[in-house]
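## Example record

The block below lists the input lines for one assembly entry, exactly as stored, with component labels intact.
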Amino acid sequence: MASFFLFDTQPAIHAAADSAAVIVDTARVSAAHEESENLFTHLLKHVQDAHELETPFGRIELPHLHLFGVDMSITKHVVFLWLAAVLLVIILALVARKNKKHAVPTGFGNLIEIFVVFVRDEIAIPNMGPGGLKYLPYLLTTFFFILLMNLLGLVPYGASATGNVSVTAGLAVIAYIMIQASAIRTQGIVHYFAHFTGGVHWILWPIMIPIEILGTFTKAFALCVRLFANMTAGHIVIVSLLGLIFVFGKLSPALGYTVSLPSVLFTLGIDLLELFVAFLQAYIFTMLTSLFMGLGMQEESHNAHEEHAH
Amino acid sequence: MEANPIEVAKAVAAQWGYLAAGFGAAITVVGAGLGIGKLAAAAMEASGRQPEVAGQVRTSMLIAAALIEGVTFFALAICIILATK
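Predicted structure tokens for the full assembly:
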């Protein structure tokens, strides 16, 4: 085979194989190093889902469950998801019952009323008009649920369930269903499907309709990834800043102690930012859902008067 | 020679993957920083010209910033996938 080439490639092939062996060895060593004790992957374990729950009293091992071949184990994020749901139902039901009689709520109900009125007057009605009031319970549930899940991740030993892409995917699926359902309920199912054609010549329908159908998925997908990435990135930054202490501590204990004070101060700053981001992401999810619902709901009035001009 | 081509290719690809993740994250941050910076500049100017609407401007600014950050995090997620695979 070497005789095919004009020049002698045997030395080049040997040299290439040697360097290839070096590369493979390096990769193998670094991979082994990676598997065992990379600081980053160890830090990531605090942010990812885990099969055990850490409490101040020790580690609780959570049960593994396999239903119909799907891994449905109770993991840390599942526990916090349920905790947020139970807390939400209990707190809001108590607050609602206590404030049913008076027009002006008192105590903790005052705080909840601020958020409820905010969601009603700044999110539901501007985006969906007066007809949006019947979707207000869904929007309030979304807002408070996401907010509580985000906030639970900021307390010690806590974890944000929204840091799990499955949780945000579930929220996005429900948002998608609500967006389509509100559009169908307002426009009627014939108008809703007619909107997929987009007013082009009927020859282009086979191209237009799949693209429009896919276009409805992108909004929900963006909602899912935005919430997940915001929460996870924030927690990774916090955990990395605290991990700096251990990185320097490995070099020398004195250096570790020196770095600990600035590192904790930085982490405090980032924690405050994360608190803001928790509220902001709950608001953004709710607002975008209501915006998309409103867009679907108003097609009906402009359909009746003007021609579709996309 | 113990180096078969598939192993070599995988090893080389892994090294390039780390580099790509680093570059990707850097360029993503540049894009997001520029975008949100322009947004904040416009918001400051609008608030300075007409202080009465500062509240509405702030709300719109936060919404736009969250949307831009959402796009950033798409790219960031891809970089993390590259770096940990």
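Residues 46-305 of chain A form one domain. The first helix of chain A runs from residue 10 to 37.
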